Automatic annotation (TrEMBL):
Protein name (database record): TIGR00266 family protein
Pfam families, sorted: AIM24 (PF01987)
Domain of life: Archaea
Gene3D superfamilies (alphabetical): Mitochondrial biogenesis AIM24
Length: 224
């Protein structure tokens, strides 16, 4: 599978070139275009129960599989302005935050895993997406995306709204910014402190921060 990412980092679009018999699985609504020799199959990925768990993780209940009868291209884009990053998995596991899975090889296993209170209070919901196997994976971000190597640091603190994904070799804890007063007055909420080894992918913008800026500026409806 060949791929090309254009218009990055602000309005990135992914184009994959599929050989005959190859397939790519993408989030519902991510398709921009495809050649006529590519068939689309929509299904509840991994069966009904797995799809229910994916829905709790913030992803769509259904996914689309694009399979090439003849060689051709298919293009995808995320719903928010930002970047797309390719990650080559080789019998590995990556944890992906809600909304950052764009597409991946049809052979990758995409499931959810209960994250306990750490992920719940970190704003990730009760479930994180767990992507396992070998093949290309494409992550999307709000804003630009950057990978940070934890091996070069004792620990690394990230605002939870800026996390895109992390390798399963990384340890993490979610905590407040200092005490209650600091949390309320600093403009920051909860942070995730990573340690161990592996990589963490970050996005340069936060949806929560944007909504906090936008919502007070929206006009209010006059009372009846």
């Amino acid at each position: 599978m060949e791929y090309d990412i254009t218009a990055r980092p602000s309005y990135a679009m992914l184009t994959v070139s599929l050989a005959e018999g190859e397939s790519v699985r993408a989030e519902s609504g991510a398709m921009v275009s495809h050649d006529s020799g590519i068939d689309i199959e929509t299904n509840a990925t991994g069966g009904f129960l797995k799809s229910v768990r994916r829905a709790f993780g913030g992803e769509s209940f259904f996914q689309n599989t694009f399979a090439a009868r003849t060689p051709g291209d298919a293009s995808f884009a995320p719903p928010l302005p930002g970047d797309v990053e390719h990650v080559a998995l080789s019998e590995e596991t990556l944890y992906v935050q809600s909304g950052s899975y764009l597409a991946g090889d049809g052979g990758l296993d995409v499931d959810t895993e209960f994250g306990g209170a750490r992920s719940f209070f970190g704003g990730e919901g009760l479930f994180l997406l767990r992507v396992t196997g070998s093949g290309p994976l494409f992550l999307s971000s709000y804003g630009a995306i950057e990978a940070v190597d934890l091996d070069e640091r004792d620990s690394f603190v990230v605002d939870t709204g800026h996390i895109v994904a992390f390798e399963d070799s990384a340890d993490f804890t979610v905590r407040k910014v200092g005490g209650l007063r600091s949390t309320l007055t600093s403009g920051e909420g909860l942070v995730c402190e990573f340690s161990g080894s592996g990589r963490v992918w970050l996005q340069s913008r936060s949806q929560d921060a944007f909504l906090s800026w936008l919502i007070p500026k929206l006009p209010t409806q006059p009372s009846a």
